[in-house]
């Protein structure tokens, strides 16, 4: 796996400058703002610079269930990369801060035009998804996995 913790660190410097110039801008993360909603079009993504964001799952008849909390240098969103480009989860800012926001269509276009950039972006996103799925699996096992029986006295 890559040792890069942040998407921008995983991209070669010459490609990073082009990506930031052509497809990104810095934005505020406003407390309690919903960044995206499950089922809506995934047309952007973020690298969090400061602040914290909860990723949640809609539960009918109940409050959304928090799946994960993300912070500094973490990638927020990957549904933009895979057709049909629809969010599978939602996200809400729980601590104000700043993020680099990327235009998903522009990033996909740049990745198609530049194999080095495309490989770096796709690899980082795939590694991030794999790491988070593994973390989710561990949390589910802690919650619902078999428990060791207490020894009888």
Characterization of this structure:
The structure is a single chain. The protein has 153 residues and is of the alpha+beta class. It has four helices and six strands, in the order ααββββββαα. Helix 3 (104-113) packs across helix 4.
Summarize the entry for a quick read.
The chain is an alpha+beta fold and 153 residues long.
Topology:
Blueprint: H1 7-10, H2 13-23, E1 24-29, E2 34-36, E3 44-57, E4 65-70, E5 75-76, E6 90-103, H3 104-113, H4 115-144
Antiparallel strand pairs: 1-6, 2-6, 3-4, 3-5, 3-6
Helix pairs in contact: 3-4
* Contiguous helical run count: 4
Largest sheet entry? 6 strands, antiparallel
Instruction: Tell how many strands the DSSP assignment holds.
Output: 6
Are there runs of 5+ residues with pLDDT below 50, and where?
Answer: none
Oligomer: single chain
Mean pLDDT figure: 91
List keywords for this structure.
single chain, 153 residues, alpha+beta, six-stranded antiparallel β-sheet, 4 helices, globular
């Amino acid at each position: 796996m890559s040792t890069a913790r942040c998407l921008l660190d995983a991209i070669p410097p010459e490609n990073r400058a082009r990506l930031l110039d052509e497809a990104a801008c810095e934005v505020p993360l406003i407390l309690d703002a919903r960044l995206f909603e499950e089922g809506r079009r995934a047309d952007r993504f973020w690298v969090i610079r400061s602040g914290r964001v909860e990723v949640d799952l809609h539960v009918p008849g109940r409050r959304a269930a928090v799946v994960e909390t993300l912070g500094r240098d973490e990638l927020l969103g990957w549904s933009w990369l895979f057709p049909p480009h629809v969010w599978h989860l939602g996200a809400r800012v729980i601590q104000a801060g700043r993020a680099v926001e990327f235009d998903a269509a522009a990033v996909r276009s740049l990745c198609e035009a530049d194999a080095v950039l495309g490989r770096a972006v796709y690899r980082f996103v795939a590694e991030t998804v794999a790491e988070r799925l593994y973390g989710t699996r561990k949390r589910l096992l802690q919650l619902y996995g078999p428990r060791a029986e207490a020894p009888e006295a």
